[in-house]
């Protein structure tokens, strides 16, 4: 049988088109950060420009120009005032790591003296978070110390537990010292990328209608198969991701403001760098609150003792409750919510497979795959009954919000 390229294409058209699309995305991976920023800025600018047209009665171009002028002003204020303060406070925080180490040892000693049963649990946690190689080297070094101090008086050397805690703290602080310079460089690099993204996003926003018409003209070109197969799913995917990131950005901003006010009231130092950490970590659902709480508690513990650190924990718990029971239902809405256990699984897999991008985009991508690709309804009969007490035929809500009746299950 003679091989026909045309017949092969017709039989495998969908697979070939989507393979070509993913190959194109792979080719653009070096520009993914810029493309992502352009997408987010354009999506958010569209929202603000609609508000400007609706409430200020501005023309479309005037509303867009006003929105991007606000973006430029915010970027200038960040580079001029916030970024230098963050760098100064980060340097101060890194310089205080030795003092934090001493404070942690003192707090551990006091805690174990009051509650001796906690010592095995604490030391088991410490050992589990130290690499095996360092544990072996530490054990060999401690053996040498014991032999050298055999004739000395008891208590003249550091205990094995304290030495192990010091090793754990220095291992963690070493990771912080190694990571902090690259993070600060990335902040400056992100500011430069943001300027370029603002330019591209501004041009796209001004010319949105003509760009839309040019994309739609692909329907009558030789790329009409590509357009028909990918246009609607890509637009839907972009909408889901944009809605999720827009909601998460508003939640992150609210969390940061609440945390900043709470830290100022409690008198915690280094509020600029800590607030920046809270803002960035707020884009990671569920796990972000734990990632951002650790440095805040350490700074509070070093600056004002255990009581102030516990107050910070109470502050974070309160803000997290506000986020979980007020912000998420109001901002995210029920159509973008997933089970928290599923979110943790998605974040773990996303971080393992794609790193930071997996944690940022894992939840909206999973939402799209579950509800748009696989067609799992957003609401089933049991959840609808719990929410509003619907009875009769089983009702399912599609990802686009349409409802359809189904016969009652038997």
Note down, in words, how this protein is organized.
- By secondary structure, this protein is an all-alpha fold.
- Among the domains are: 240-363, no CATH class; 377-410, no CATH class.
- Helices cover 79% and strands 2% of the residues.
- The protein has 16 helices and 2 strands.
- It has helices spanning 5-11, 13-27, 32-55, 60-95, 97-114, 118-128, 132-148, 160-206, 208-216, 224-266, 271-281, 287-304, 306-332, 340-354, 356-373, 381-388, and strands at 394-397, 403-406.
- The protein has a two-stranded antiparallel ribbon.
- Strand 1 and strand 2 form a beta hairpin.
- Helix 2 (13-27) packs across helix 10 (224-266), helix 3 packs across helix 10 (224-266) and helix 10 (224-266) crosses helix 15 (356-373).
- It is globular and about 85 Å long.
- The model is unreliable at 380-384 and 387-410 (pLDDT under 50).
Order of strands across the biggest sheet? 1-2
> Can you write the helix and strand succession as a string?
HHHHHHHHHHHHHHHHEE
Are there runs of 5+ residues with pLDDT below 50, and where? 380-384, 387-410
Distance between the termini: 52 Å
Shape: globular
Largest sheet: 2 strands, antiparallel
Counted by DSSP, the helix tally is 16
Strand residue content = under 5%
What is the number of strand segments? Answer: 2
Mean of the pLDDT scores? 76
Helicity, as a percent range:
over 70%
- Based on secondary structure, the structural category is mainly alpha
Report Rg. Answer: 27 Å
